[in-house]
Protein: DNA-(apurinic or apyrimidinic site) lyase
Organism: Theileria annulata
Amino acid sequence: MCSDPGPSTKWFDLRVPLTVLRPELLLTTGQSFTWKCVGNKHWVGVLGSSVYEIKQSDDTTLYRTLFGKCSRERLWDYFDLDNEYSVDFTKAPKPVKQIIKRRSGVRILQQDPFECLISFICSSNNNISRITRMLNEIKRNFGTFLAKSEVNNETFDFYAFPSVDQLRKATPEQLKKLGLGYRSDFIFKTVEILNSRGLNWLYSLRNEDSDTCKSALTSLPGVGRKVADCVSLFSLGKRDVVPVDVHIQKIANTFFGVKCGKSLSDSDYERIGTAFRNFAGDNAGWAQAVLFIDSVIKS
């Protein structure tokens, strides 16, 4: 078990079977944008002020740090390993059952709420590779430099995600030059609001119900229903919420017969969420993640 105060050349075993945690399904499939694949089932990424290296072996997950504190507890929380996910298979369509069984090892990543919020504001009308580039530019220009490390003969500069104080230094014009486009104004205004309210306002949403959480988040510039649901699910512990994008809309139509218009109305959005909650209950967000990841991998 890793308890070193600093980086280590030794690999540690998280001691979780792949049926419970399978990193290849999680780290670069749209929940988080901090990880980079550097080899076969091998990733590097920054959590807080530590640089982690993760490998998926034939039966477990290995980890170590390239910089900063090495904490098994941090990874345990990040991968939400204190929670067991389950659904009522008697209420799930047969193809959905098959996908859930085939994609065992999907987890709901529990990220820092501020980083998650800015990440999903960047996700609007975007794709995973471009979102990742945007966030890397934000970190490189406004975050704290952590380390330069070589992994598999490739050298990387690692930066922490900027704090509210650090990101407040960014003007909309600077953000636009980094390629963020119209999202620049949203990020600038949201950071100003969070600076005024304090980050405790954001973190306190973990203690609210899902509807209250969504209402609070959608009061921020650039945060609509889907972004609010992503932040709620991936950083605030609201495992019953179902973010809906074009992938999930198609899935809901195919598997649950939920037909929607070209423009997704609020009632259609809610009907899709209800379809997931009918068989997955409080784990509807996890069921959504499994089906979403399956569709992304296939495409």
User: Anything to note?
Assistant: Residues 128-142 form the longest helix (15 residues). The mean pLDDT is 95. Strands lie at 12-13, 35-39, 42-47, 50-56, 61-67, 145-151, 154-159.
